[in-house]
Amino acid sequence: MKKADLHTHPNILKKPEQGEEFIRRAIEMGLDSVCFTDHMPFSVTGDEHDRIPFGGVGDYCRAVRELSERYGNEIEIFTGIEIDYHPLYEDEAKAVISSGEFDFILGSSHLNISGFGIPFGGGLTRTEYALFVLENYLAAARSGLFQILTHLDVYRWVFSENVFYPLEGEFDPSATEPTLREIFAEMELRDIALEVNAAPLYKKFDGDGPYPARRILDIAGEYRIRRTYGSDAHAADKVGFGYDAIKDLLI
Questions:
Q1: What's the pLDDT band for 4 if we cut at 50, 70, 90?
Q2: pTM, rounded to two decimals
């Protein structure tokens, strides 16, 4: 099995030097391939931080290809993007995808974290919030836009931070199983891979291992779904992080 990190954020247009830093780190970590997956520019959240600037998707793809040509004898470099999916903004996601040439398109749900569509003012339980996030992933799987879905249980981070909006009650993991099974059935049908994401291993916000937690991976194991590894690195020193600890979870 090739050692590939298919989820990294070098912020290549805003910080061009990081592209080479990420590549050098990937080579140092013994990776066979690395994929750059900076976040899409998005009207709801803007193009701040590690998002590709508005109108810059074509430039982004060209920048990654140039690095691929330069370092192609040492490591395989893929062009990817991480798309924040919500059904109301599917056309916007399609427009971003069509404006570039990508090897991998990752689907994720960050809008929920930023509060989009969340009822404020209290009363939302942790279980209801997790189901809200997972319903968005189900819609993403059904959209047919993605090769990989990443950090399905990102709600774990929200639970640990508890600073975004008030969430009540204890989380009931069993309540999410029917929706998870719907997601995995769609992923199996459409040959969408499930990413095992290392971010919780270095963010250390809980002790439940990578995204998704083992309980979810066990459910996914009942379906014919490929798995990929992603460091979700936003700094070069996190590229390839935790691969050896995660590799046994990959199939």
A1: very high
A2: 0.94
What domains sit in the chain, N to C, each tagged with a CATH number? 4-249 (3.20.20.140)
Whether residue 113 has pLDDT greater than 70: no
Question: How confident is the model over 206-220, as pLDDT tens digits?
Answer: 999 999 999 999 999
Q: Which of 22, 26, 27 is nearest to 9 (CA)?
A: 22
